[in-house]
Fold this protein.
Amino acid sequence: MALEIPKVSYSGKIREIVLGKGDKAITVGGGTSYPFYLFEGQMPLKPRIAMEVYDSPPDDWAPTALEPFADVAGDPVAWAKKCIDTYGAEMIALQLVSTDPNGENRSAEEAAALTKKVAEAVDVPLIVWGCNNAEKDTEVLKKIAEDCAGRSLMIGPVTEANYKQVGAVAIGYEHTVIASTPIDINLAKQLNILLGNLGVPDGRILIDPTTGALGYGLEYGYSVMERIRMAALTQEDERLQFPMVCNLGKEVWKTKEAKQSRDEAPKLGDPAKRGVLMEAITAQLVLAAGADILIMRHPESIALIQDMLNDLLAA
Amino acid sequence: MSKIICSAAIRGAHNIVDKAEQKYQEALDKWGPDHAVGFPNTAYYLPIIYGILGVPVSKLGDVRPVLEKCRSLLPPLVSEKVWLPYLAPTLEAGMATFFAEEIIEAIRYLEYPDFYTKQEDPIGGNIWLGAADDIILRKRGVEFVDGTAPGFAAILGAPPTKEIAAEIAKELQEKNLYVFMCAENNGVRMSEQLVEAGVQIGWPTRLVSFGSDYTATVFAMGFATRAAMSFGGIKPGDFRGNLLYNKNRIFAFAMPLGPVSDEWYANAAGAINWGFPVIADTPIPEILPTGICTYEHVVSNVPHSEIVQRAVEVRGLKVTVSKIDIPVSYGPAFEGERIRKDDLYLECGGGKTKAVELTVSRDMDEVEDGHVEMIGPDLDQIKDGSKLPFAMLIEVAGRQRQEDFEPILERQIHHLVNYAEGIMHIGQRAIMWLRVGKAAVEKGFRLKHLGTIMHAKYHQEFGAICDKVQVKIYTEEAKVDEVLALARKIYAARDKRVDRMTDETEETFYSCTLCQSFAPSHVCIITPERTGMCGAYNWLDGKASYEINPTGPNQPIVKGECIDPVLGKWKGTDEFIFKASRQKFQTASAYSLVHDPMTACGCFECIATILPLCNGVMIVNRDYLGMTPCGMKFTTLAGMVGGGEVTPGFLGVSKHYIASRKFLLAEGGLKRVVWMPQMLKKELEAKLKSRGEELGIPNLFDIIADDTKGATEEEILPFLEEVGHPALTMESIL
């Protein structure tokens, strides 16, 4: 008797979400099996990578991370263009760290003006990520949504604290929301329900399950992502059938290990490769857990992941 | 529906449709059927006609079929002799009214292109703004979605004086409502009154002077109709969807000020279609039963001083309090703060004086929201180091109010008062203890501010169940005694109610999946007789939590058919567990530790497990650090039991559940219990003794072994044999 390999029976499908507008618009999602389980279902749309662009010149980056962008670090528009022209970025993620009230505390107006400039300069889908201060993000994201009406941005993080305000402008000005919850499947589901109740169309919701870096709690996020996918695909939980975004570049490159020099950490190997590999491994793992969109920093780690994706998805 | 209202509304609708036909004919003669017609800068054509009928009117010729539709909607005039249910035809007449008025207003734009300013503010002497364009709609509509502006008041006419007009406008602004104004009362218009009173009008102040005529009502209704299409994803022509969206989400109402003409009635009838009730200052007939609107439809003869509050109640609008106006800091950081003797300014309760706190629910008209009253001396009238009797009586009212929620609200007083810097609160009910520090008094804190806190926080956190809150604080002995007497009566009734509630009497249980963040497959089933194992959630908490947060971790479970009354299994709970454990578990018993025991999270107050030698059960609480007869300490046991797993023979339980009649029913109940730490026994002494009586074993409390009798099965068994513990002769537990 021939051996029959047992198969998982899937009843759900991840929603297909269109990101951006025009020729360079991208569709993500659509999976009908666990990630890369091509022997059980389809993964018709490849996971995508957005390259990070920062709104102010980074002052504490590892030399390895800064090197590719040293010439554009003070100019987000040039930075975004370099990502696309030189590194072939298919998406851009604008990180609005300078709006943080505990940091530079730049105003919503400044952030919106900058976002508009970047949005006008690039034709690929644009993610706009706030400073993770719900109150400030509300103000900033509202202004951005209004000023960039009709540009189909992906805006986040949208949390339980500000989903009404940010959700409302996303509906009114036609953007996609990134629903962010702290590593908890039920909270993720609840926020998606709340956004739906508010009136945000299902075609404009992405999940940010919260991602930790390798060695910094990645496994917690991994488990929750797995569970979100299991609920979405095998348990007919339709409020979890949305693509997931992992904002991981930021997390990896802020770790001690990614920044330490050879002198500071002689046993941790070549610092020029260390951060790149940490970022690539983190990305690889969240892809295995079900990520659809990765926000990454280093061109080399991105190249490694693109290679991996091409290999795994080659039929 | 009142016949008077119906007759008038239908008459008014006829007049308005006649007028629209006449205007249309004139316009057609002048400009011809291909002439463009519409409101400025909008993609929604004439929005009510577009939203409700799905008909895009862009040129004069498009108007004709709409007028025909009006005619077909219009019921015949009400005859003196016929008594029929008039609701449906009247509502249709109201709808026809709006279509006709949109046509009238659209033609006005043709005839007088500069009649309206067509922007957010008045220009020079022209205060009439006309229809909101799409930019205004989007900018302002967002506020309707995110709740910064919950809705609007559509005001027709004007109050008697400009001072009253300014007062009403201010009150509505304070509730964050938009004020949409049109029409005249004896030649006086509210917009004009506001200008005279020096009040700034226009979209930025939310006082929108739409138009001078009653037909400008359609600008308000058109705004609402477009909001549903723009923000609710409602398709043009989906009238049902549009009207429901407005009923459920836009907290709007019509407020006719002055004598209500037939035309006004027609407009009011139209507004009711959208779920917007009518609150009038004149003595027109009332329509009180619920139907199309959430609550009453027409409420009349309301004095101007009460009209805003009444409107808010009738429409079911929730009050939002964003700031707690007290002179000290407020937040969870101050919860654990102690006030030491040296810092003490005032002390109440704690055995030193009489003190009580009580939350009771009242009828809507018995509570004046925001009323805080201090009866007796406050902190500025007493000396440093004083002691006073104290009573805080919080009266709440709400459309969703339930007496069952009183104790839950009351229990919040403790942490809500503690959040204030410089205030210490301990205990509850009539054993409460309050200390106010010197520093707080220096900053200006007064006892009255406790009322401010409770009013604000009840609204903020429990808005779903309380619409109105008033607080009275007493420091006069005689008054305190009165409140105490009332409180004792209420406490007794509450305790009795909870005591009488059983798993058989209630059809709905509640789930708790709060702990799934760390125990992914854990599902707690909370029944009246089985509180959550953490001890923090009883059945009433589950119920209240669901009312307050319907998408939250406490969901109602209709228990359905009982599968096994002894194990505690129901069809409904099993189905829920299967789903909520994400298919990991198919069933759980509410009353058994051996057969399909419930999963445990990790927050249980106690763990119960089997002692095979004694043929009984032991219970150990979290605070007990010593060894137990099962050979494991609490911490070791906790590692085995938690994490959302099922571990037959082990069960997480709350302290309260131990004294429940349903405690381990499947294993024989409380008389199976052979060992508990002495500290736990002491804590539950009264309850255990009364359960022992109930079970016919009056000395049950004394024959349960504890750590003074031994910490191994071998050590306690002789004691159990000596006292003749019932477990020894019960059927084998394994």
